[in-house]
Amino acid sequence: MVRKHLFFFFLLLAIYAGTLAIERIDRVRHAAQATQQVQQRLEAGTRNLEAYLLSLVEINERLAEALAVAEGDEIQPFDLWTAELHRQHPELISQSWIDGLSLRRVAPPAGNEGIVDLDYGRHPEYMGGIQRMLARRGTILDPVPRLLQTGRPGVLLRSPFYRQDDKDRYRGHVVLSLDWHGMLQRQGLAGDDVPFELQIRQEDADGVEHLLHGPVELPVNHRSETRLELPDQVWWLRAVPSRTLAAYPAAWAGLIRVLGLLLALAVLALWWRHSGTLHKRLRRLPRDGLTSLRTFILLAVLVPLPIIAGLTGWWVYGASIRAVRILEEQQVTELGGLIRGRLASAFGIPGSVLTFNQGQWHGRLIQARDPAAMLDSFMLQLRAQPHLTLLGFAREDGRFWAASRTWQGGVSSLRILESDMRLDGRMRKFHVDDANRHGPLESLGDRYVDMRSHARYRSAADTPGLHWNLPDPYALQDAAMLYEDWGIGMSLQLRDAQGQPTGVLMADVALAQINELLRDEMAPLSGLAWLTLPDGTLLAASSPQALGQPMRDGFMYTQAVHSPLPEVRQGMEWIHESRESTGQYWMRVDGVRTLLHWRSLELPNGPRLQLALALPEDRYTESIEGILLRIGLLVMGFWLMGTLLAFGLAWWFSRPLRELSVWAEQLAHDQSGRTEPVHSPVREIATLSRALSRMARHMQAHASQLEQQVAERTEALTLANARLQALSLTDGLTGLANRRHFDQVLAKEWARARRSGEPLSLLMLDVDYFKAYNDRYGHQAGDQVLSRLAAVLQAALQRPADLAARYGGEEFAVIVPGLDVAAAGRLADTVRRKIQDLGIVHPLGVMGRLTISIGVAQQVPGHLVGVEDLIRRADDALYQAKRDGRNRVIVAGQA
């Protein structure tokens, strides 16, 4: 009765689990179909995009060739080409002709007023692309975050052209401007009807990917990707199904659940009907109990309710932790974007300041012959830009003056720096009052400082336009050691009206101020933030412990992988392994789950910096864990109460069952003569007791007879098994091991040789011209010959581990473990000679006698070879012996 009830109970559980499994399988099928649809659409869009871009590259290069030929008369071919181009491609933003670094002409003029008279020398964010074009000497694609015409992300196609009389001398280039969204929409990769979310990443020469378009992160599951190879770079297009496409149809899920519910109701109806029939049958039995077993089952079902509550609480806890982690990931992503924005603003100050002063220079508002006016302007700009550390001008004749502040920041830290190589070249530092006037001399450098030898000066003189310099020390020989910090900044060469170099403008941001910026942002969060160069060198961090010890004559920061803090070391290792410029990852630092978030910060015409944040999870989970702990304690209390109640019910319910158990155990050991049933208020237990009483009487009557029959049949079965085992492993004709026994022993010896590293040898033997012998003398004579050969073969084996077997027909095999190949060959030749010496007449055989051919192979088992290789090599050697004339031994691998 109980067993049948349990059957129906587990059947209901199986229906429930099956319904969930069917729905899960169908969800997976739906997701796979959505992914396949996205993959097909993405591949088609990628092909379209590749053809579109390559066609534009070809057009741009042909225009560059036309302008190179029409030297001095470029306007006419430019206008003709651009008119035809924009007739065919009206979606293009513009096509421009750049003479040197200055824009000379743009088409169409309407909508491109913002780039008229554009000078790329004042826009460092574009100089990197121009330098890459010159280094490649060909067309490049230059993705930019903001087009000057529209303020939207775009792609610039740059094609250079050179002088006709000097092919190595750059003269200008042609720029074709594309809008990101418009380009993707035209190729079916963007728009309201696109069934996926697209991300585009650019892979650089080192294999590191940089985000060009789309969300920072895409789910790994159900992600499709394609590779787009362009003339100078590789793009990875990745996409996941949109929410609309990925959403599983609610109607279909409801249908599956309704069918499962109907099936469960049908099972419940059968259960009810079955229980009613059984109840009627039991009522005809003698009444010995007061209640039914189902009452006790219901009580047993009510007891696990606290456990269910506990499992529910645990599920709530897990869901809460997951929600907290998702919230933390969102907050860290927003925080990373905020810090990156502040860093971009701080690093954007040098470029904007130099551009402003370049305009001042061209307007003759500042001049090299009036250092006082220039310093006054520099000081006003320094006061307006708190992150600006140094703004100075180094002349060609060796004079230098600058407005500066020490790394501590604040108005009181403003200083004027001056040096003159025409005098002693020593750096002089002056106080500054609120009117920006010279105060008294504060300190005098101990050695001369020639700014013309500084890296900032040399790089500006070598490369036109604005560009970034790698971090380096100020090296101003300051006796007070207020300028021992390192700075990162930009420089720009200024020229007079005749185009002759006059000097170099310099603008710096001290790395100590970047440290303070990161420290201010991370202080309330108990986390860590750091900034690195592309090679992993630490520039700044919110904790000074991350930077290591400064060195006076070398770079003051260490590699991030060598940082004293484990968050930085582990974080940089993961960032390096991921080879992505943006992402996040949960890592464990000293046993604490920590969220790592990183993103790139590309300085205009400068290095690509890496910003990373590490925040511990316990900062977010401590409060929710306290609440859930109290809920857990409450659930635990209810669970204990339910457990006590279950124990009390089980004790009362199990007393008669324990008596029955003891009685049954005694009957099993023939230690009890009891035949009276056990009384119980439960009908089912009383029925079981009466049945056990009848069983005891039958068991006592038949125990001896059963034991005797079991003993006789066991003995007979043992003898039959022994005979069967012997027959199953022996060849009936030759008495040797059969093929089955051979395969078992070979597998065992192969495994043993693999463990010990010893060689395993195998001999494959075949009777020469045996079919002709059978045809001449008959199969009975052939069988006698095989028996004699088997006897010779068995007698030749002296070691217990050797095994001779009939492999099939007239073919035999010998397993020789632990024997080197030379000894195996000698054993084979001994067997061959003994068979030949039998002198069995065979007119069609070799020398008129019956002979055999043998193939020998040896193998040391390893991971890359199997036992099949050994058999194949021995078999190949056997057939080689056949081809070489028979009656011989061939060792595999030897001539």
Gist?
With 895 residues, the chain is α+β, with helices and mostly antiparallel strands.
Output the number of helix runs: 19
Helix content: 40-55%
pLDDT below 50 for ≥5 consecutive residues: which ranges?
550-555
Assess the beta-strand content as a share of residues.
15-25%
**Cα distance spanning the termini:** 78 Å
How large, in whole angstroms, is the Cα Rg?
45 Å
Compute the average pLDDT: 81
Q: What is the molecular shape? A: extended
Strand tally: 28
Helix-strand makeup class = alpha+beta
Largest sheet: 9 strands, antiparallel
What report would you give on this structure?
With 895 residues, the protein is α+β, with helices and mostly antiparallel strands. The protein is 48% helix and 22% strand. The longest helix is centred in the N-terminal third of the chain and has 68 residues.
